Every structure is written in structure tokens, then in C-alpha cells.
Amino acid sequence: MTHEIAVIPGDGIGQEVTPAATDVLEALDIDFEFVEADAGDAVKEATGEALPEETYELAASADATLFGAAGETAADVILPLRDAVGSFVNIRPAKAYPGIDAVRPETDLVFLRENTEGVYAGHEDRLTEDVSTLTRVVTESASRELAEFACDYVDTDEHDGFTIVHKANVMRETDGLFRDTVAEVADEYGVETDEVLMDAFATHVCLDPEQFDVVVCPNLAGDVLSDLAAGLVGGLGLLPSANVGTERALFEPVHGTAPDIAGEGVANPAAAIISAAMLVEYLGYDEEAAAINEAVEATLEEGPRTADLGGDASTEDVTAAVIDRL
Amino acid sequence: MTHEIAVIPGDGIGQEVTPAATDVLEALDIDFEFVEADAGDAVKEATGEALPEETYELAASADATLFGAAGETAADVILPLRDAVGSFVNIRPAKAYPGIDAVRPETDLVFLRENTEGVYAGHEDRLTEDVSTLTRVVTESASRELAEFACDYVDTDEHDGFTIVHKANVMRETDGLFRDTVAEVADEYGVETDEVLMDAFATHVCLDPEQFDVVVCPNLAGDVLSDLAAGLVGGLGLLPSANVGTERALFEPVHGTAPDIAGEGVANPAAAIISAAMLVEYLGYDEEAAAINEAVEATLEEGPRTADLGGDASTEDVTAAVIDRL
Ligand SMILES: CC(C)[C@H](C(=O)O)[C@@H](O)C(=O)O
Ligand SMILES: CC(C)[C@H](C(=O)O)[C@@H](O)C(=O)O
């Protein structure tokens, strides 16, 4: 069976790390068909559209999508692409790697971020010269879908339930609905949960990240708190993410376009390659996914390393080393 | 001239650290008249009201208010009290103290948090069984008032402008209005600003807190990011805050009620005492405020210390030591 993979490198180092990820995928004994498409600042400059219709359609029909990075146009690209693949959950692991400088090396978290609504539903108005509004939307159905996913996600020996993070003491109706629905679903599944306010989470994750494991939260909370966790593990450089829907999914490194080093062939491909491992796992190839992750971890530990990790290897050197270790 | 100070100890260790703060104030050569009032879980249990009308009225008429902490009812108490004093800005310094364990000892930040609107404006609805909404409100006038305050705040040798933190790539109209208004006011005042997205701020403040100084942001962003900074400096225990309006203001330690140690007389009064120093400064007594801050810093460094800092002194011991050093 051939898996059609949409490949959208985007801007900056997206152009370098995305091919690295597809090189790794090609080294596996799985049948992929890669179809490349444009998105981002460069195509906007050329055509006026940051996300051409064909790219949206491709992501909406491919089995899975690999995305690189976009610059100024990031929101115009990534938000519609999440919608194209019907993603309801954004999976954001944040774990420190051995040998990599981290503020909190004991951090090992996974954020399951609601991926369709909250402030991202984005109904905004300028009511008067003085007053603007944004309607934040929280539905029981989206909260339930996320919670069901979370319950399945933690149904392994590795996890004991999850933590619900919210701000229901202020957003009583909306985050209240989120919290109550997620807790109710967890109850139905027999999954243990605890809950923490999002501001308190921000303090406690710095003081003692080991008290948390899987975190289930609304869209913007997930955006900010997973980036906080990225800071604790030493930066966005190594973090992968998955935007998962019922029929398809999109995988992207959490880092941006890194304009300062773009074009030099020295970008660290690790996050893109780990994102590709998440893609492989999503398609059902657990062993191959584990093999990629182990090869990346060994390479992070033993080298070669790119400049961001104190080495002088090229993107290609690191990619070749990962493939060698598969 | 006598300054009428509303004193609202609230629940838990609020009952212990607030008297410590008034003891310090009484040791100054300033004429205070303290008027005590109830708020919080205990008064709710007794009367059904977490914030009795008299308490609100007192805060709304006193020259300044000292608040301790509230438990479960925190939001029902503190949000109306901020309104009672007409507070438009929440000032939250987050600085690491010498000799105190911190994740990032080089952290020295001040958050100027918008204190009236954003998601806290709180218009919520349950539109259908499935759908709930919250209307987030951002006004040009509140953004302008905050920005003018911020421009005055940084008008000292200590500061070079401020950083505007927002999420205008997603909340384009509302956070766009916030960002544009604040930047415009800063321009009028000749104050330098830069801007960072709130998720990127969360990463970067962990990696390198020294790149930031004064941060100006919307209400919820300030709530979460100042608590993140609290984590970086070692917890909420030592952090003061001020809710400032044009005619009056309310001062509170950022910590909570600490039910685990409440009633034992061992709570650390430092945050409440530093909050009292902010009150004294607000009333125009800069030298006295500096004296309190120096006395607290010396006590933190040389002791006596409460249990949270590894010592075995009581709240009273620490308070007496601060007063001795005035
Ligand atoms: C680019 C932006 C719209 C996006 C988001 O806010 O979700 C980004 O920060 C992310 O987390 O992938
Ligand atoms: C208690 C709560 C309503 C409050 C807030 O969200 O502002 C608290 O977290 C704070 O920061 O003072």
C-alpha cells in the first residue's frame, strides 16, 4: 500500500529540514509517494497567496502532510492547513534530550492541545472606534473529541492519566464547559485526571516539571504552555508536533524559519525528522517510528551535531548519520 | 496628613502576613489609619458573600488597600476589588533575590498587565447545548491608559523602554488594536518598544530572561506570563503586586492562602511586606519604600528565615527583624 504524503517545505530552513525528513522516510521499507507543494512568504511574494488553493487541496486529500516552516505568513498558512487535515488535536511533546543543555533537563511532557476553537475560532469585530471584540468559542463536542483522544493516548503503561489545564475561575462558562466535559469523558473511560489553572501551571512547571506528564488544554493555553515547556528543554530546535484528525494529519517541527542561517545547509534537521517519526507512527508503523527516534537520539548524543548544538556538521551530515543508524 | 488604609487579610496565611505588613507600616513615621474588613472563603461560609458590600465600599473609598489572600473564592474577591479601586494596571515585579534558589537567578522583570478587560471582561453565553462563547473585549482607551502609565513607568535611568507582548497574529483585530495603540502612545512619548508574540515570549524568557525588562501586555497574558516568571525566580512566595488606579490602589502578595501551613504562624511575610512597600511608594514616600525593600532584602539574605526558605523562624521573628533593620 502506497501512502501519499504532501510535502510542504515552506520558507527558510523549512526548505532544508523537510528534504532531510523525506530522505529519512525514503530509507524505510515503506511505500511513500511524496507530492510537493508551496506555501509561505515566498509563494505569497510570487503569487499574492500564502496558501495556494492546490496546496490546501493536496493536504486535504493526502494521507498525511509534512510541513516545514513559514515566515511572516505563518498564521495564514498553518491555521488553514490544520483545518485542511481536519485536525482536532495538536500533539506537542516537550522532552529534554540527554547531553543537550536544558533549563530543566528532567522535563518530559506531552501537550494535547485543542486544535480547532477557543480564540482561534476568531470571530472579531470593531464595534466602535474604541471597542474591539473577539468571540471565543468552546464546544462540548470539540472538548469531548479531544478528551476521547487523550483517554486513548494515555492508555499505555507509560502514563497515569492526564492533567487538565484551564482558566475556569475566570472563563467560567467556556473553560468550565471544557473542564467539565474533559473530566466527564475521562470518568467514562476510567482515566484519572487532575486539574490546574493555567497560571499556576506556568509557575509549577518551572519549579518541578516532573509532577506533570500529559497535559490536556484549550488551544491558546496549549500554544503558550507548550512553548514555555520548549524553553525549559532548551528551545524549539528539537521539538516535533502532530496535528491529528480522524482521516489525516499534518506533522511539523515547532521551530520557525531561522532566517539567520537559512540557505547555508547548516540547520538542525532533528525536529523535522522526529516529526516524520510521528507521521510514520500515525500511519501504523510503530517499529519504524521507534527506529527513527532511536537513531535521532543516538545522533544527538554522539554526533555529528549542527552549530545550534555546538557542532559544525551540515544538515546533510546529520541526516546521513541518522539514516546510517536506522 | 492621615492615609486611610483598608486592610483585608482574607483567608489562610493572609491572616498572618497582612498583620506583619501593617506592623512594618506602623513602624514608619507616616500617619496611617487602618480599617479592617472581611473577604474570602471564611466570610462566605459565615454570610453567603465572599465580598461583603462594606468591604467593597471600603476599598472604593480608602486611600489604598492591603489585601492578603483568598481561597476558593479568590476570583469573586479580587476581581471586584480591582474594580473597586478603579485599577487599570497590575504591576507585577518578578525578580530573583540573592541567596534564594531560583531556576533563573538572573530574572529581573516587571509586568505591566492590563487590569480591566480582555477575557476578564467576561461576557459569556451558552448559545446551545453544545456551544459556549466568551466575548473578549479590547478597547483603545484602556490600551492607551495602560500605555501612558507604562511610558511614565519607564521614564527613569533604570529602564530603556518596554516590550509589548501580544498574540496579534491570531487575535488580529483585538490584540492588533492593543499592540498598535500601545506602540503609538510609546511613539508619542518617545519611548522605545519592541514586540514579541506571547508564545515566543514564554520560550525566550526561559532561555534568556535578561533580554527582557518591562513587559506590557493584555490581562490574561499578564496573568500567565507573570506566573511563569514567578516560577523562574523560585515561586510565588516573594512576589508583591500592585493594582493601580488613578485615585486609589490595592496591594497584594502574589501567593495564595497556603492552607498547609495556615494558622501555624510560620508563613513568610516577605511578599506582603514588599507589597506594603509598593503602597508606601504609591503614596509618595519613596525613601520609606526603599528602606522597607532594603530591610526585606537584608533579612532574606542574612535571616532569620521562614521554613519555605530553609529556616525555622516564625512570621513574627521575620517581621521583627525587618522592623529592626528599617
Ligand atoms: C503561527 C501561529 C498561528 C501558531 C499558533 O498560534 O498556533 C504557532 O504559534 C504554533 O503554535 O504552531
Ligand atoms: C484569582 C484570579 C482571578 C487572579 C487572576 O486571574 O487575575 C489571579 O490569578 C491573579 O493573577 O491575581
Question: What would you say this structure looks like, in words?
Answer:
Two copies of one chain form a homodimer. Chain A is an alpha/beta fold. The first copy, chain A, folds into two domains: 1-97 and 236-325, Isopropylmalate Dehydrogenase (3-Layer(aba) Sandwich), CATH 3.40.718.10; 103-233, Isopropylmalate Dehydrogenase (3-Layer(aba) Sandwich), CATH 3.40.718.10. In chain A, 41% of the residues lie in helices and 24% in strands. The first copy, chain A, is built from eleven helices and twelve strands. Chain A has helices spanning 14-26, 41-47, 53-61, 74-84, 140-153, 174-189, 198-207, 219-232, 270-282, 286-302, 315-324, and strands at residues 3-10, 32-36, 64-69, 87-95, 108-114, 118-126, 131-139, 162-166, 193-197, 214-217, 240-245, 249-253. Chain A has a ten-stranded mixed beta sheet, with helices on both faces. Chain A has a two-stranded antiparallel sheet with strand order 6-7. In chain A, a hairpin with a 4-residue loop joins strand 6 and strand 7. In chain A, helix 9 (270-282) packs antiparallel against helix 10 and helix 10 (286-302) packs across helix 11. Chain A is globular, with a radius of gyration of 19 Å. The two termini of chain A are 22 Å apart. The mean pLDDT of chain A is 97. At the A-B interface, helix 4, strand 6, strand 7, helix 7 and helix 8 of A face helix 4, strand 6, strand 7, helix 6 and helix 7 of B. Strand 7 of chain A pairs antiparallel with strand 7 (131-139) of chain B, so a sheet runs across the interface. The structure holds 3-isopropylmalic acid (2 copies). One 3-isopropylmalic acid (IPM) sits between chains A (74-75, 78-79, 223) and B (169-170, 199).
